[in-house]
Every structure is written in C-alpha cells, then in structure tokens.
Amino acid sequence: MIKVEKMKILSQKEIAEYIYELELQGPLVDEISMPGQFVHIKVKKANDPLLRRPISISSYDKNKQTMTLIYRATGAGTIELAQQTGDLNVMGPLGSGFPVEDVKGETAVLIGGGIGVPPLYECSKQLKARGKKVIHILGFESAEAVFYEDKFKALGPVYITTADGSYGTKGFVTDAAAQFNIKADIFYACGPVPMLNAVEKLFDKIPGYISMEQRMGCGIGACLACVCAVNGPELYKKVCTDGPVFPKGELVYG
Amino acid sequence: MDKLRISLPGLELKNPIMPASGCFGFGREYSQFYDLSLLGSIMVKATTLEQRLGNPVPRVAETSSGMLNAIGLQNPGLEKVMNTELPWLSQYDLPVIANVAGSMVEDYVEVAKNISRAENVHALELNISCPNVKEGGIAFGTDPEVAKELTAKVKAVSDVPVYVKLSPNVADIKEMALAVEAGGADGLTMINTLVGMRLDHRTGKPVIANKTGGLSGPAIKPVALRMVYEVSQVTNLPIIAMGGISSAWDVIDFISAGASAAAVGTANFVNPFVCKEIIEELQAILDELEVEHIHDLKGRSWKVGETANYRA
Ligand SMILES: Cc1cc2nc3c(=O)[nH]c(=O)nc-3n(C[C@H](O)[C@H](O)[C@H](O)COP(=O)(O)OP(=O)(O)OC[C@H]3O[C@@H](n4cnc5c(N)ncnc54)[C@H](O)[C@@H]3O)c2cc1C
Ligand SMILES: Cc1cc2nc3c(=O)[nH]c(=O)nc-3n(C[C@H](O)[C@H](O)[C@H](O)COP(=O)(O)O)c2cc1C
Ligand code: FES
C-alpha cells in the first residue's frame, strides 16, 4: 500500500561532493516490497518548489522501520531537502523494483552510474543474502563524487570508474566491464540512459534489469508525464508504476 | 453537508469539489487513497475517438510555484473508456464529467454522442482549449465563431448538458464565453493551462520536448480568478473554476469571484488527499463564516452591497 507520511529524519549528512545520505524512520518502511522502489518527497511545505521529488530507496531495515536515501543536491528541490531536519513528507513506496527471487546462475553484476548507484546497494545486499556472488561496477564524475565504495566492497568486488580519471579506471562503466572481462549470469543497472543502452549492448547474452529515470508529476500513474517508449503493443509504459525497473530489451533507446 | 450541496445543469452534487481533467486519470490511482464517492464529481482524462499516444518526453517541467505539461492528450480512446474506465467508475456514487477532445469537428461529435450515453456520465466538458496538440485543439478555443459552431454541433448530439472548457490563451475571454453561450453551452469550465516554456540554463534549449507546455498550479491562480470574475459578470452560465486551487480558501476565492463549483488539478500531484481535505475544510470555513450555503458567497467580489455581510 502507498502511504503518505511524515517520516522522522534520523540523520542527514554529506558523504561525497553534493551527495547526501538521509536516514528516515516510519511505518512506510513496512510497505517496501523489493529493492529498487522509490519514494516521492515533498521537500518542504510551500508552493515553491512545488512538485515532489522522486528518490530511490537505497537500503532499508524493516525491523527498525528505517530506510536510507542517497541523493545529489544540485537543483532547487534537492538543495532544500539537504537543509531539512525534523519531519519529512514522504509518499511511497512506489513502483516495482529489482527482482531478486529465483535468480538463475551464481553471479550477478551490478552496474551503476552516479546517482544511479544508490538503489543497487539494497539489491546487492539481498542477492548476497540469497547466496549469489555480486560484482559491482560503479561510475562517477570524479574522485570527489565517489561514495559507498567500502559498503559495496563488503559484499563483493568493486570496480570504480571516473569520467576524468581522477580515481579508479578512466572512462565509462562499460569500458571497465570490457577491460576487466567481467562475466556474470545476470545484470542489474541504474544510471543515465546512454549508460543503460551501452550496458544492454555489452551484456546482450545474459538476462538483466535496468532502472529508468523520467520527469514525474503524480508518481502514481495518473498524469502520464513519466512515460518511456517500449517494444511491444503498448508503445509507452509509465516509469512510476510499470517501472522504474524494466527487464532488459523492453526499452526503446534513441 | 447541506451547505455544500449544489445543483448545476445535469449535476446534483454532494459538494462543489472535483478533480480537474488530466490530473486524476480515470480515478483508479487516487482510489487507493480515499473513497471517490466523497467527491462532488470527477472530470476524467480527455477522451478522443482513437487511442492517442501523446507527446515525446520530457512532458513536464517545474516552474516557480507551478508546472508546465505537454502530455498531448494521451488516452486509450473512446471504446476503451466506454468499456473499461467508465464501468469501473460506476461502483462509486459519483457523477462523471467526461472531457471530450479531438482534432476535427467530426471527432468531437462522435465522442460526445457516444460518451454522453454512458450511464454515469452526467455532463460533458468540451475541451476546446488543449494547448498541446498540433492540429485543431487550441484553434477551437481561440476563435469565437469556430467555438460557437463546435458547441452547437456537440450540443445537438449530446444526451447530457455540455460545459465548454475555456482557454486563457485569448485576448478577451468574455468574448469566447459569450460565443459558446450563443452556441448553446449549458455551462463553462475555466481555465485550461496557459502556454509557457522553460529553457535549460546551460544549453538554452526548451526543457519540454514539445518545446512549449501548459502552465498550471498556484502560479496561475490570479489569472484564473480574474477571468472567472470577468466572465461571471457577463454570462448567466454556471462556471466550474480551476487554476491553482490547493486549499479550501482558494475555493472560497473562486466562488466569491463568481464560480459555482471548483476543480483541483496540479495540487493532486503534491497531495493526493487534497480534494478530500478541501471538502472537509470547506464545511468548517462556512461554519466559521456563518454562511448558510456556499452559494451565498457566489459573486460577492462584484455584487454591490453584499461584501459586508460576512466577516471573511
Ligand atoms: C525513479 C527515480 C529514482 C531516482 N532516484 C534518485 C536517487 O536515488 N538519488 C538521486 O540523487 N536522484 C534520483 N533520481 C533523480 C532525482 O529525482 C532528481 O535528481 C531530482 O528530482 C532533481 O530535483 P532538483 O530539485 O535537484 O532539480 P530541479 O532542476 O529543481 O528539478 C526540477 C524538476 O525536474 C525534475 N527532475 C530533474 N532532474 C530529474 C531527473 N534526473 N529525474 C527525474 N526528474 C528530474 C524534478 O523532480 C523537478 O520536478 C531519481 C529519479 C527517478 C525518476
Ligand atoms: C498533467 C496535466 C494534464 C492535463 N490534462 C488535461 C486534459 O486531458 N484535458 C483538459 O481539459 N485539461 C487538462 N489539464 C488542465 C487541467 O484540467 C486544469 O485546467 C489546469 O491544470 C489548471 O488547474 P490546476 O492549476 O489546478 O492544475 C491538464 C493539466 C495537467 C497539469
Ligand atoms: S508521474 Fe504521473 S504517471 Fe508517472
């Protein structure tokens, strides 16, 4: 069930350049059903910024009723969000996430770009808990933007790439995947659309899931703002309710 | 709830509050949050003869206290709306206002004829003002003669009263109101969105794929209010007002400006419970103002000698 709730802000801190980690607590967490779902946040009670902001759930703990979000604060709404203390107006959980049950094969590769990295963390934890080997390829702009390297390392190998070469391998995540000859039975990816397209091409022999981003209005399927082009008779699907996670091969790029 | 009960052509409503077209789909999504029977009515998403896929993305952009949209009338088409969406809505005690759109006169007529026969459709809202479709759409909403003729043709085939949705993107909205009144309209709904745009600072290019979009939300309320104020003084048609409504006081403003009922659009995205909350708050405000019936406030912004009656 989707809730709209005042969640308690337990902590909020900057963990890399412009990147904030926000820990929230409340009964909304009970409703989370899989990694990769997102919440829609009203950053403050005012007409400006008006719309809610979609942010992925990076990890959650049902026992403590807590969840962690990681976001980049560079626009009007997210800068405002970074200043909030006390309570936060959150709607969620929304969308369908990364399937982690009944995954065939032993090894999963998780590929994230920038603010696409956060939802992969819970996904990786849950795959690992189900006995899978997890390999991570995480791409960032520069050394200053890198976050969660150690947390992912605790689960499995991590390859970091930076666009400017200031840390890890210089280039894109797909460059690193090819360079290190990464082999896996399934992939999970979240990041900018060109990256998702490149990942689908590189891992064309194995099944996989990708998480999409789109500008949103309602976040619940009513306004038809967030559509993306898909193969098949419908032609369009809604990122907020049909996604944000889609099986490989479903999206039409370009 | 007698203070809120109202009667308009085709519409006997528990209260004057309804979600605006395109901002509430066909109700399914919001039915997760509250019982839709609480609403006065529901203005469902624009329906066209054939399925429409809508515009490329991005389709929305945020602006100061508002948003731009260019959805492009995406909808499943008349047949699916008749066979699936309207029957689903009939489980609620909820008169439906069907929003009718098209790109040619024949399309409007065909959709109006069929959809007006659906059991739970109590009125039509003729969408002659969508700014986001290339052909037709807005031309119907900006040329008084064209609007009058279209209204008359739709009126001739409709089984239920016809409300015409006016565009604010005109030099004189009063002229449009009078034209559709002459064409036989039973009521007006206003306003649709204002054409606007937003550029990406870095690239200098429009953020919305359609380049321009329709502005909605609190930013447009002063414009909508002024238009209702002007139009309500020159026509006898009842007005269902919309444009930036997000609270019960906003509704009171529009009623004071001369509207008979109010619709809520963009605010549903911000707070999915907003319509329900407004209905509850309205009741309390009317009690506080010691008003017998919400329509006692109707047009008090321009009616001579009536402002002093209430302490608002
Ligand atoms: C399903 C989903 C999950 C996401 N998860 C995360 C996450 O975990 N961490 C994170 O940092 N970001 C995430 N994003 C992107 C995040 O929503 C945007 O960065 C954020 O909305 C930008 O808001 P702003 O106030 O900073 O920017 P502004 O420029 O002020 O935003 C203006 C408008 O554009 C929208 N917008 C701008 N950029 C994006 C974008 N990339 N995607 C969607 N809408 C956008 C905003 O929501 C707002 O409506 C996610 C997006 C989606 C759709
Ligand atoms: C995303 C979106 C979709 C809309 N779709 C329609 C539509 O299909 N038909 C229509 O007549 N108006 C449509 N509108 C206009 C609204 O019904 C309303 O007239 C307008 O948004 C002003 O009200 P608001 O400020 O409360 O949103 C749409 C508005 C938005 C924001
Ligand atoms: S954001 Fe409204 S349909 Fe997806």
From TrEMBL, chain A:
The keyword Electron transport applies. Residues 2-100 form the FAD-binding FR-type domain. It comes from the Bacteria. It holds the Pfam family DHODB_Fe-S_bind. [2Fe-2S] cluster binds at C218, C223, C226, C240. Binds 1 [2Fe-2S] cluster per subunit. Binds 1 FAD per subunit. Its cofactor is [2Fe-2S] cluster; FAD. PANTHER family: DIHYDROOROTATE DEHYDROGENASE B (NAD(+)), ELECTRON TRANSFER SUBUNIT, DIHYDROOROTATE DEHYDROGENASE B (NAD(+)), ELECTRON TRANSFER SUBUNIT-RELATED. This is Dihydroorotate dehydrogenase B (NAD(+)), electron transfer subunit. The lineage of its organism: Bacteria, Bacillati, Bacillota, Bacilli, Bacillales.
From TrEMBL, chain B:
Keywords: Cytoplasm, Flavoprotein, FMN, Oxidoreductase, Pyrimidine biosynthesis. It is found in: Cytoplasm. Pfam families: DHO_dh. Its cofactor is FMN. Its main location: cytoplasm. FMN binds at S21, K45, A46, N99, N127, K165, I191, G217, G243, G244, G265, T266. It catalyses: (S)-dihydroorotate + A = orotate + AH2; (S)-dihydroorotate + NAD(+) = orotate + NADH + H(+). It is an enzyme of class 1 (oxidoreductase). It comes from the Bacteria. Substrate binds at K45, N69, A70, I71, G72, L73, N127, N192, T193. Pathway: Pyrimidine metabolism; UMP biosynthesis via de novo pathway; orotate from (S)-dihydroorotate (NAD(+) route): step 1/1. CDD domains: DHOD_1B_like. Heterotetramer of 2 PyrK and 2 PyrD type B subunits. Catalyzes the conversion of dihydroorotate to orotate with NAD(+) as electron acceptor. PANTHER family: DIHYDROOROTATE DEHYDROGENASE (FUMARATE) (PTHR48109:SF1), DIHYDROOROTATE DEHYDROGENASE (QUINONE), MITOCHONDRIAL-RELATED (PTHR48109). This is Dihydroorotate dehydrogenase. It comes from Jeotgalibacillus terrae.
